[in-house]
Specification:
The protein has helices at 44-49, 134-149, 163-173, 182-193, 207-214, 227-238, 270-280, 292-301, 313-321, and strands at residues 2-4, 7-11, 20-22, 40-41, 66-72, 80-86, 92-95, 117-121, 152-157, 179-180, 219-222, 241-247, 260-262, 284-288, 306-308. The protein is of the alpha/beta class. It has two domains: 2-129 and 267-321, Ribonuclease Z/Hydroxyacylglutathione hydrolase-like (Metallo-beta-lactamase, Chain A), CATH 3.60.15.10; 134-262, Rossmann fold, CATH 3.40.50.10890. The strands form three sheets. Strands 5-6-7-8-14-15 form a six-stranded mixed sheet, with helices on both faces. Strands 10-11-9-12-13 form a five-stranded parallel sheet, with helices on both faces. The two termini are 20 Å apart. 48% of the residues are buried. It binds zinc ion (ZN). The site of zinc ion has 4 residues, from loops. Residues 25, 27, 75, 98 line the site of zinc ion (ZN).
Amino acid sequence: MLCVNNMNIALDRRESGSDLDFISHAHSDHTSAVRSSQYILASSETMQLLGQENKAYATLKVGDNAQFSLLDSGHMLGAKQLRIDNTESGERTVYTGDYKMQESRTTKRIEIASADTVIVDSTYPEPGMLFDDRNEVESCLQDWTRNKLRYGIVLFSAYAMGKSQEIIALLNEIGITPLVSKRISAANRVYRNCGINIEYASAYDDASDYESITRDNFVGVTDSRDVGGLGRTLSGIHEKRVFTAVATGFAKKFKFDTDAQFALSDHADFKQCTDYIDATEAKHVMTYGQCAEILAENLHRAGYAAAPLQASRKQVKQSILQP
Ligand SMILES: [Zn+2]
């Protein structure tokens, strides 16, 4: 929890005693506050993706001496950073939420604001784990898909929100309209409403397109984790070989039980993290999330004044409140 002028702000998690719950984006590990909170701060796109568009989002109970603003984080549709300006002390603090520095097709580029303190996400804390050039990974994914499609069905497993739409955009670019699962289709409708043009077919939306596409070899995108089981089912129904794949940053760390894996990430690696901190010119760095301590340690070694947020709440509080 972050405290600004006696106002408790919960960052991407439900915490008792919070006056305001900030939800940076619609991924489920960040949205526990959505149903119970009275005061949510989130983008309208995030609330649409959560099916909460009618809720009075962004109901701000702003303290007298702080201003809040939302900045794009580059992670997925509607993903925002939270910037807090202490108008009394002049202290500027930015919390990144999930973020990346690289550009992608279905997400606005990250906005960088100067800050005194940044609170950075810690998903990939190790300096040795660096993502390859994104264009190269994207080309590999497109070439592999085109090639396998000559011999059978291609099936991707991806998060229903964010990664799926990115894969669909990459497939559209090489002339492929993929079939998608029900949850991906629901998220796609929000993306389209927000002006992201992606072409897809779904048995739940347009059965005629679905039937014509499945007459030939096709590409499917599913949010099911059991891509192997689904592949075997599809193979039985269509009497064709099915090639499975995942696209996730964790492909850089782990071996998946699929035919191919592409390290296409919507998170910052260590290099992007230090590039971000440098660009904000922040003097203090707080790390946040599951790997906060490891990231703080590694940043410290690299010469940054970094500490995990929870362990150093007092210092953060002081840093924000004191002029
Ligand atoms: Zn996320």
